[in-house]
Protein 1
Amino acid sequence: MTVCVLHAAAEMFPLLKTGGLADVVGALPPAQSQLGTHARVVLPGFPAVLAGLDDLKLVASLGAAFGAGDIRLERGVLKPHGVVVYVVRADQFYDRPGNPYLDAAHRPYADNDRRFALLGWAAARIATGVDPEWKPHIVHAHDWHAGLAPAYLRAFEREGAARVGTVMTVHNLAYQGTFPASEFGALQLPGDFYAVDGVEFYGLVSFLKAGLYYADRITTVSPTYAREIQTQAHGAGLHGLLQTRTHDITGILNGVDYSIWSPSVDDTIAAKYTAAKPAGKSKCKAALQERMGLTRDEDALLFGVVSRLTEQKGLDLLLSAVPDIVQRGGQLVVLGTGDPALETGMKNAAAAHPGAVAVELGFDETLSHSIIAGSDVVMVPSRFEPCGLTQLYALAYGSLPLVHRVGGLADTVVDCSLENLADDLATGFDFSAFDRAGIVGAIRRAFALKARRTEWKNVVKRAMGQNFGWETAALRYAEVYQGLLGA
Ligand code: ADP
Ligand code: GLC
């Protein structure tokens, strides 16, 4: 039997992206379809989503729900892979300029509960047959935005609908989608769902908890994070529930879409290169130094960051180590956007070290590729990291990752310790204690390795030879689906 799965999510590359969730939702469905699982996606009808799809057609009118009238379900195709994407059209919810979650003042929209309840509800409607031409066996919900999908499916079953399997993937437990209990009435769920065994979380409605409670299976995006979130220290209040579901939880590492993130095919970088012919990488470095106003110096060890500027990402710790990079003759380039305090901190660092530190505030897909390609070292010093994608992209581009050893970072980067170098395993640098001494130690080891040119080249080659293709993850998800369907 061909398993049909419907992914429900808020973002999908290249239609709309604010972080790694979009990369995953853009790459996993085509990888699954190639390996025999039939995957489709449902997204909210944000303007960028509508603009990027071909052949949009009306599937069904869904009437009024959650205070939105005239809701329509449309279906289009995303090229080049040809993934079929359902779009929930509710213009009063989704036709807003800018960020999909935040208003112009960077505050969550006041009606986010209804906006994303509609996404979960629409996924459940598709799964119960609203499209006469297609119905999934499984709804696969991503993050809190889609967390109510399993709850609606359980509610529809009570009314006689056939059972549909559900998987909830946690990309980040820190974002839970919590709302005042007074909003529960607007969500069109049975009254008894507002309970500890349900959507209630410390007196609030939690979309993520709903997904974790009602879904048949839970996955998260790396094996280490799957273990971490079941501990009090990293469980963000949900570790108790997660512990009760430990046998239903699987950690599946994200992959890399090498048709987009590979220096041998990347049209956006200054020069293409491969592990065997790496000359283009120096051109990428020179172009990046030029573009960012850094001193043109081939020998300066260039550290790069592409990141959301949030507490999670540990960039305050990096700021404390900037003098250690600069005093050793290194350079730092940062692309990011987010917390005003971190943005200011970055700008101040650039002003204090002209020619050695450069910062671009904003979201810029092309520049992100230039930084991953042009840097010698890509830094991901996150306090916690469910998976992390930039360290995987860095490996592919021979830019050695420097990471805090947590979550998916621990699962993907092998430190240049003497033992790992001797055993031909090393691919980057890591540090365990999240403090200045920890990160500075790793930075010093990066400078030391760079000075040993042959060894550096060997590690770069090994990094570029790592394979984190999506096939492995797609097969693991297929196992989860099969276990769930009893196949
Ligand atoms: P997260 O999803 O927590 O933000 P990931 O490492 O999984 O972290 O994914 C981040 C994705 O977003 C990567 O594709 C990265 O290149 C991209 N990204 C982050 N910040 C920016 C930015 N300011 N401009 C362009 N791309 C960015
Ligand atoms: C989240 C996590 C990140 C992960 C991404 C995609 O945003 O913060 O670690 O790589 O989702 O799964």
Note: Residues 112-127 form the longest helix (16 residues).
Protein 2
Amino acid sequence: MIKGKSVIVTGSTSGIGQAIATAFASAGCHVMLNGFGDPAGIESFRAGLEKDHGVQVLYSAADMSRADEIEAMVKDAETAFGRVDILVNNAGIQYVAPVDEFPTEKWDAIISINLSSAFHTIHSVLPGMKKRGWGRIINIASAHGLVASPFKSAYVAAKHGVIGLTKVVALEVAEQGITCNAICPGYVKTPLVEGQINDQAKVHDMSHDEVIRNIILAAQPTKKFVTFEELNALALFLADEHAASINGAAISIDGGWTAK
Ligand code: NAD
């Protein structure tokens, strides 16, 4: 039973993080939201979760590229909820270019938001989890944490790094009632992927649907996007007592992409 636990979901103002935050709230958890976006839209999402599910929902605008802001977000959650039981590292960005044309500032931003932020959040939540002898850390990696695609050097490097970090943390906390796992989704239809579809449509002079069929879902044997419902169910299960022996795993949810 995870009812009454408290959760931080980074990057939860959009896409996968927003869906996972909603799933935890509907399971009766108190939630710290995080991410960028229109303040009125974020406030309406936050207040809606509280009203619909009778839980406490807070929002932190912490920038996941800033260690000091990450630490402050964790402190705020611990103060408000009394503890952080579950951490979902989800915030992420993408940029696509050949390595020799890849802008250094984009490399730095992707490494800090997609990888280093997970170090900083874990670094901040672990002392409390260790003290209480219970915790769940769920890192949203990617199929690109297991295999590569061209033009995504920073993203692929960061996601492989997230899986490495997941394994190290899992080993360090294994005897303390804490687990750390990575979820590795294939393509999910979120604003992050919509951006890639639009870019590819321009580059290849294809329609939106042609890009989805011939480029994006070409990697995914099911030829279907992974759904929010499927990801939510996996995240909730990893937070459950029955997942206590799943530790240090990189769990694919990609329609068979990485089986190839
Ligand atoms: P999205 O663009 O819909 O959402 C990203 C979230 O991260 C937003 O809430 C955004 O505000 C937040 N964010 C970005 N930069 C931030 C920063 N500096 N500080 C705080 N928050 C920040 O993307 P998504 O597709 O939902 O992706 C979520 C995660 O899932 C990412 O880590 C992504 O790599 C991973 N993922 C996505 C897919 C996919 O197909 N969509 C597949 C595999 C893995």
Note: The radius of gyration is 18 Å.
Protein 3
Amino acid sequence: MSVYVFGHRNPDSDSIIGAISISYLKNQLEDEEYIPARQGDISAETAFILEKFGYANKVPELKTSVAGEKVYLVDSTDKAHFQDDIDDATILGVIDHHKLGDITTSTPLECWIRPIGCSNTVVKEVYDAMGVEIPKEIAGMMMLAILSDTVIFKSPTCTKADTKAVKELAEIAGVENYKELAMEMFIVKSGTDGATARELNTRDYKVFDMNGAKVGVNQLEMIDISALDDRIDEIYADMVAMKEEEGLHTMLVLLTDIMKEGSKLLCASDDVSKIEAAFNTKLENNQVWLDGVLSRKKQVIPVVQPQF
Ligand code: MG
Ligand code: MG
Ligand code: MG
């Protein structure tokens, strides 16, 4: 029986590349066949990475139901981020770099979770621990996934393990100027032309269960967020619509400016005071600039969650 490897809903590059890198690793070590999968469309950024390293026609397969299947998870352990029937799958293992979520298992599992910048850094460490050589193309894709998650090492989530992994992977992939290639990737990621407000609001969207309240948080990482200045009202109106449709208590959008190294926070909430208390600030026009805030997992979720 095959094992499907996948990351969270609205897959980012770490989820898609992680599915590929873990599947390859497992296929060198185990008899069962591991198959890279995904829960949704790939982003323009991920398409760029796959294309760059010859994987454009090897996009992981779509898997929206997993009842009765064996699975291996990457980049989240939150039930809300997986298929509705994830409880009916057998979870063989997980590689992640987020807070521990609410996934439970009925059988022993392999578990590699580290508080570092990217799941693919953990994957790299597992390759090394198991003595498996990383193919050139997979190394290149893992390298870009790490540079994406760590915002080219600027994110407060970035650790020495991440910079070390990128250097070693760049060497294997034969990429000399990895920062230049990463900037090229972020230019692709920053593209918003022709995208509807809903497309923008769901680009990197995650829902968190906060003591029974549903809190949706979307993040757009851009080289220059002023490109969206004249679309803020439209984006906010759609946030209000999403909040209603999905029964959210709060919908947050982080417009992260990777050059200015901070985020504009937009907030639609049943109780704005919770968000103001979380960041010790006042919203004006449903928004506020948060200097130095680049990471949802490290600088947003941990301060918002205790308010609920
Ligand atoms: Mg992710
Ligand atoms: Mg990640
Ligand atoms: Mg991210």
Note: The chain has two domains: 3-188, 197-307.
Protein 4
Amino acid sequence: MAVEQTLVLIKPDGLIKSLTGNILSRLSETRLVIIASKVVRVSRELAEQHYEHLKNEPFFEELVEYIIGDVHNTHRVMALVYQGDDAIKKVRDIVGHTNPEKANPVSIRGAYGRITTTGVFENVVHASSSPEDAEKEIKLWFQADEVVGDIYPVKDAVLKEVRQKVWA
Ligand code: DAT
Ligand code: MG
């Protein structure tokens, strides 16, 4: 068994329905280690990059609006990185099938997900599905110094003239 990392997102429906604690409790059954976490206001650019592999699907625009939070009127997603042996499969098993109607009823998506009348799978959480996807997704959602441990190669860089918000 290989040590893996996997990205988990608690989507806006999970946050607005106060499911955060339940979801984290379920994920703690895996005994994996959390090595990064934060709450993110998702930009359209981030949403489109995250779901790039689905850009030709008819539901793409609704999927983007869902992850941004426009659908649930709460612009928050909780992003976490879990690490440990076989992390990707362990998390996907507890998360359940992509389609909430097909998901095991005791999985997170089976218990809390729904399909909207327009056909969008509001499935509460995202979990990476391969080591390649996990690396791409973790690098998309987190900076190297937001993750505990150098999980992928890093380099030192001195950044100049980066515009960012600081405490006043
Ligand atoms: P997963 O999130 O299980 O990895 P995915 O990467 O194929 O599944 O798709 C990403 C999201 O897109 C998924 O969580 C819900 C939505 N989605 C996928 N297939 C769909 C479909 N046939 N109809 C509606 N939404 C879909
Ligand atoms: Mg996927």
Note: Residues 54, 59, 63, 98, 119-121, 123, 126, 129 surround 2'-deoxyadenosine-5'-diphosphate (ligand 1) (CB under 6 Å).
